[in-house]
Amino acid sequence: MNKIYVFVPLTAFALFIGVHQWSQSGRDQREQARLVSAKTEQAARRAAEIRAREVAIQDALTQQAQQKKERQEREAREAADAERRQALIDARDASATEQQRLARHIDGLKRDIAAEQEAVDRLQIDRDATVAEQVYLKDAVPKVRATAVELERVLEKIAAAEAERAKQAAALKKKI
Predict the structure, then answer these.
(1) For residues 159, 165, 168 and 173, what is the CA-based torsion angle, rounded to 10 degrees?
(2) pLDDT confidence of residue 118
(3) Cα separation of 84 and 169, whole Å?
(4) Residue whose C-alpha is closest to residue 115's, from 73, 129, 123
(5) Looking only at Cα atoms, what is the longest distance across the chain?
(6) Where residue 108 falls among pLDDT bands split at 50, 70, 90?
(7) Residue 1: which pLDDT band, with cuts at 50, 70 and 90?
(8) From CA 132, how far away is CA 166, in angstroms rounded?
(9) Could you give the CA distance from residue 64 to residue 58 in angstroms, rounded to a whole number?
(10) Chain centre distance of CA 2
(11) Is 1 helix (H, G, I), strand (E, B) or coil?
(12) CA 161, CA 127: separation in Å to the nearest integer?
């Protein structure tokens, strides 16, 4: 029995060493394969990361260029809008100024029209008076001429009567 105590543990120890050696021999290869696989995987991952970074950098540069272009377009559009807005404000101010100038001009013209209308009314009154005078003169002149002719006749009669009276007075003086 004493032999069993020595032989079984030695056999078990030998078996353990054999299994251990067997597992270690495969383990080194597996470890090597795992390291190679890890290195290739890591290299692939790094290459993919580098490619991804390059793509990301390229995308970022493209996006940056696009944003710069959009910003320039937006700034140009805003500048054009500002110029258009300023032009509209200037046009509005100019039209308001022109409107005020024209309103003052219209007020001046209305005053001139009122003054001229007063002058026209005075001239109309003068014309009406002149027309009335002409009508009166057209009616009065023949009457005055007729009266003048009548008065001349009366004066001739008076002169004739005076001459007659002077003749009679001379004849009476001759008689006396």
Answers:
(1) -110
(2) 94
(3) 117
(4) 123
(5) 240
(6) very high
(7) low
(8) 48
(9) 10
(10) 119
(11) coil
(12) 48
pLDDT digits (tens, 9 = 90+) for 110-161: 999 999 999 999 999 999 999 999 988 888 888 888 888 998 999 899 998 9
* Separation of alpha carbons 66 and 54, rounded Å: 18
**How do residues 25-68 score in pLDDT, each as one tens digit?**
777 777 788 888 889 989 999 999 999 999 999 999 999 999 99
| Cα distance from N-terminal residue to C-terminal residue, the chain | 240
Report the alpha-carbon distance of residue 163 to residue 146 in Å, rounded.
25
**Counting every residue, how long is the chain?**
176
| Encoded tokens for 131 | 């027309």
Handedness of CA 57, 60, 61, 62 (dihedral sign): positive
Provide the residue type at 39 as one letter. K
CA distances from 51 to 37, 42, 44, 59 (A): 20, 14, 10, 12
User: 96 pLDDT band (50/70/90 cuts)?
Assistant: very high
* Residue 111 CB burial class (10 angstroms; 0-12, 13-18, ≥19): exposed
Q: Where are the alpha helices (DSSP H) in the chain?
A: 2-175
In angstroms, the CA 18 to CA 30 distance is 18
